[in-house]
C-alpha cells in the first residue's frame, strides 16, 4: 500500500534504470551488461533481459566511473539465473541489487561479502525456499575471526516458495527496516519464523500479504518497537489479529484488505491508538461496522473502507467518543453496498475529502442533510460525485442536486387557539350527533335484553329439586 513512501532513495535509483534501458550506455564487449552514469553520482549496471543464466563479470569501466559517494544500481531483472554466486566488489556507498524475475533456487554463502554497502536487495519472483535462506548469505567481510554485518535496509522476498524462515536469518543485517514476504505459501508463522521476525528489531515495514496465514502469534511482534507499516491483505483472518496491539504505540499504517472478516466491532482495533491510515477493502464477507469500531483510533487521518460488496450497515456510533476530538481528514466509502448513512455518523463538515461513489444511495432527508446542511457535498473530488439509486424519481441524479425542500419540517411557532361557540355548529353535525347517541342507546338496550334472557335461562336450569335416596330402604329391598 504505502510502503514505497519509505524507499524514496530506491525509487530514485530505479528511475535511473528506466531511463538507462532506453539510453545508449557505455558498452564493454566482455560483458553483457551496460553502464550508465547520471549526474556523476548515480551509476546503473544494467544486466536485465540479457538471457543470461549466471552472474557475469563486471565491465572494466565500472571502477573508473564509480566513486565512493555514488549510488549504484545493479539489475539482473528477467533473466534465467538459478544460482547467486559471490558478487564482485563495486564502488559506491549505497548499492541496490535486483534479481527479480529469475529462476533462483540457490544462493551461496558469502554471496554479498564484497558488497557490504548494499542497502537494497530484490530477490522476488524466483523459486527460493526457506531452506535456501541462511544467515551465511548475508555475512560481511571476515575480520579478526568474525564476520561483520552488511548495510542491508530493504529485502524483498515476495513471490517465492518460502514456508518458514531460519531464526538466525537476520543475524548480519541489523539495519533491516523493510521486509517483504508477500505471496509466499507461509500458511503458519511457526516458532522459528517468529524468532526471525522478532530479531529484526529495527524493522519498520512488514508485508505479509497473500501468505495464507489466518493468525499471528501474540509474541510475533514482540520487540519490534519501530514497526510502522504492516500489510495483512489477502489472507484468511476472521478478525483483526490481537497481536497488533503489541506494536500499537508505533504502528501508523495498516492494510487489511481481502480477508473473510464478517464484521468490525469495538474489539477490532483495540490498542492501535497511533494509527494514521487504515485500509479495509475488498472484504467480500464484511457486512457491518458496529458500535465503537473506530473508537480506539484516536489519531486516524485517512480511512479507506471501500470495495466491500456486502457492507450494508455502519452504526451511527461507529466513531463513538471521537467526534469531539476529530482527526480524520479523508474518508473513502466507495463501492460498498450502502444505501443510508446516519446524519450523526461523523462531523461531515470537518472532512477534507469524502468518497461515496459506487453505492446504491437512497436519497432521503438524512442524505440531503449530510450533503447540504453538513456540507459533505463540497468534499467530493472532481468527477467522483455519487448518484441516487432511489426513490425512482431521483434515480441517476447526483446526490448533490437533492435538497431538503421535499423533507418534512416542524413549525416551532404557535398561534392562539380559537374559542368554540354554538354558531360553529352545522345542521349535519347535530343530525350525526343524534344518530350516534341513538345508535349507542339502541345497542346498549339490545345487549341488556340478551344478558337478562341468558340469566333467566341458566337460573331455571339450575333450580330443579334435588332427589334423595334412602340407603336403608335400598338395602332392605335387596335382602
Automatic annotation (TrEMBL):
| Keywords associated with the record | Leucine-rich repeat, Membrane, Repeat, Signal, Transmembrane, Transmembrane helix
Tell me which PROSITE patterns the record gives.
Answer: LRR
Q: Which PANTHER family match?
A: SLIT RELATED LEUCINE-RICH REPEAT NEURONAL PROTEIN, TIR DOMAIN-CONTAINING PROTEIN
Please give the organism.
Leptosia nina
Signal peptide, first to last residue: 1-23
The answer, when asked if Signal is one of the entry's keywords, is yes
Q: Keyword Aminoacyl-tRNA synthetase, does the record have it?
A: no
Membrane-crossing segments per the record: 430-454
Protein name as annotated: Uncharacterized protein
Q: List the InterPro entries hit by this protein, alphabetically.
A: Dev_Immune_Receptor, Leu-rich_rpt, Leu-rich_rpt_typical-subtyp, LRR_dom_sf
Amino acid at each position: 500500500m504505502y510502503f514505497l513512501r519509505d524507499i524514496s532513495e530506491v525509487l530514485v535509483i530505479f528511475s535511473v534504470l528506466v531511463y538507462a534501458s532506453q539510453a545508449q550506455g557505455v558498452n564493454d564487449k566482455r560483458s553483457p551488461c551496460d553502464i550508465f552514469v547520471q549526474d556523476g553520482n548515480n551509476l546503473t549496471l544494467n544486466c536485465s533481459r540479457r538471457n543470461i543464466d549466471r552472474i557475469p563479470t563486471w565491465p572494466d569501466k565500472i571502477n573508473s566511473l564509480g566513486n565512493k559517494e555514488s549510488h549504484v544500481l545493479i539489475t539482473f531483472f528477467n533473466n534465467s539465473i538459478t544460482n547467486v554466486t559471490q558478487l564482485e566488489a563495486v564502488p559506491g556507498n549505497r548499492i541496490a541489487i535486483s534479481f527479480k524475475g529469475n529462476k533462483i533456487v540457490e544462493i551461496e554463502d558469502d554471496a554479498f561479502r564484497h558488497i557490504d554497502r548494499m542497502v537494497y536487495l530484490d530477490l522476488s519472483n524466483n523459486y527460493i525456499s526457506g531452506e535456501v535462506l541462511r544467515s551465511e548469505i548475508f555475512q560481511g567481510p571476515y575480520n579478526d575471526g568474525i564476520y561483520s554485518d552488511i548495510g542491508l535496509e530493504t529485502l524483498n522476498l515476495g513471490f517465492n516458495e518460502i514456508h518458514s524462515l531460519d531464526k538466525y536469518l537476520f543475524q548480519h543485517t541489523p539495519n533491516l527496516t523493510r521486509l517483504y514476504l508477500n505471496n509466499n505459501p507461509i500458511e503458519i508463522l511457526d516458532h522459528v519464523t517468529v524468532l526471525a521476525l522478532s530479531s529484526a528489531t529495527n524493522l519498520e515495514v512488514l508485508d505479509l500479504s497473500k501468505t495464507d496465514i489466518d493468525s499471528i502469534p501474540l509474541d510475533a511482534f514482540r520487540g519490534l518497537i519501530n514497526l510502522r507499516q504492516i500489510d495483512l491483505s489477502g489472507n484468511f483472518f476472521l478478525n483483526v489479529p490481537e497481536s497488533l496491539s503489541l506494536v500499537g504505540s508505533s504502528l501508523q499504517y495498516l492494510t487489511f484488505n481481502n480477508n473473510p472478516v464478517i464484521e468490525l466491532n469495538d474489539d477490532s482495533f483495540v490498542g492501535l491508538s497511533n494509527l494514521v491510515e487504515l485500509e479495509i477493502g475488498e472484504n467480500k464477507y464484511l457486512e457491518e461496522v458496529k458500535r465503537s469500531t473506530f473508537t480506539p483510533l484516536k489519531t486516524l487521518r485517512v480511512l479507506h473502507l471501500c470495495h466491500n460488496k456486502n457492507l450494508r450497515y455502519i452504526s451511527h456510533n461507529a466513531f463513538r467518543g471521537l467526534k469531539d476530538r476529530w482527526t480524520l481528514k479523508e474518508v473513502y466509502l466507495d463501492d460498498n453496498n450502502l444505501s443510508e448513512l446516519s446524519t450523526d455518523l461523523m462531523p461531515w463538515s470537518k472532512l477534507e475529502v469524502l468518497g461515496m461513489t459506487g453505492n446504491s444511495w437512497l436519497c432521503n432527508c438524512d442524505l440531503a442533510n449530510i450533503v447540504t446542511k453538513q456540507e459533505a457535498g463540497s468534499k467530493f473530488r472532481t468527477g467522483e460525485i455519487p448518484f441516487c439509486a432511489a426513490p425512482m424519481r431521483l434515480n441517476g441524479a447526483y446526490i448533490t442536486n437533492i435538497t431538503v425542500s421535499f423533507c418534512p419540517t416542524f413549525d416551532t411557532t404557535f398561534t392562539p387557539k380559537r374559542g368554540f361557540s354554538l354558531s360553529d355548529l352545522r345542521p349535519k353535525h347535530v343530525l350525526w350527533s343524534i344518530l350516534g347517541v341513538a345508535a349507542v342507546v339502541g345497542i346498549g338496550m339490545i345487549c341488556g335484553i340478551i344478558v337478562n334472557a341468558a340469566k333467566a335461562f341458566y337460573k331455571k336450569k339450575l333450580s330443579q329439586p334435588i332427589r334423595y335416596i334412602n340407603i336403608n330402604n335400598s338395602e332392605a329391598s335387596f335382602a
